[in-house]
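User: Earlier you gave me the apo prediction for this protein. Now I'd like the version with coenzyme A bound, so I can compare the two side by side. Same sequence as before, with the ligand SMILES added.
Assistant: Got it. Here's the input I'm using:
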Amino acid sequence: MRGWALSRGKPSPEAIDGGWRVQVDEPEQIARYVFPSADESVRRLTESTSPALTPIKVCASPDAVAPRLASPWVIDRTSPMMTKPALAMADAMVAADYSVASTGAGAVLIAFAMTNAGDIAAGGRVALIEDVAVFDQIWTHEAHRRRGLASAVMQTLENAAAARSAQRAILVATDAGCALYKTLGWRVYAPYTTAIAPQA
Ligand SMILES: CC(C)(COP(=O)(O)OP(=O)(O)OC[C@H]1O[C@@H](n2cnc3c(N)ncnc32)[C@H](O)[C@@H]1OP(=O)(O)O)[C@@H](O)C(=O)NCCC(=O)NCCS
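And here is the structure of the complex with coenzyme A:
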């Protein structure tokens, strides 16, 4: 949660009953709640409020979250939370017509892959929270996929994070991301379920 907020330039999470709340202030999301488990604090929150564009994220399966939701809250989706327990430096290899680089001096590091013509083809970022590297916004432009660019961006970020003393890493993956990260030594750690309150 802290890593996500840091990576996205959002305010630090505010502690609430059983979890945290982050002010997001984006057109599609006003704020978000995050809970480490599907316990009674999720029920208390959903009984007390159902704001627009303010999802609840819980580190638990949809089967565990659903019984904690008061109306009108419903399950929206579940994504895999993944970890890499030991970061390791290695060469970030890209094909000859690309290069990869990283930047960032603070707690957020950015990596990108460029074509030799100077177009950005892939990118990603990592936020450093103590010894944990929180990977975020890994992407490859559609025209450049399946050429190893995201793998190279991930390794570049891993090298930069390890150089800053990060020991382990975590992220929440899309399905395509999950397939990619499994090839890079990441493993699924827990389901991460989103609930929303549809507005009438
Ligand atoms: C996921 C994504 C970043 C992968 O980028 P990429 O540059 O194509 O990834 P790579 O070329 O480094 O892939 C390396 C390996 O990962 C696996 N992989 C990558 N994308 C995959 C996909 N969509 N489906 C299944 N396996 C995939 C494959 O094993 C691939 O090796 P292969 O091409 O030899 O089969 C890209 O599809 C993307 O930007 N998707 C939309 C945004 C997104 O979901 N980002 C992830 C957020 S968690």
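For your comparison, keep in mind: Residues 71 and 117 are 53 Å apart (CA to CA).
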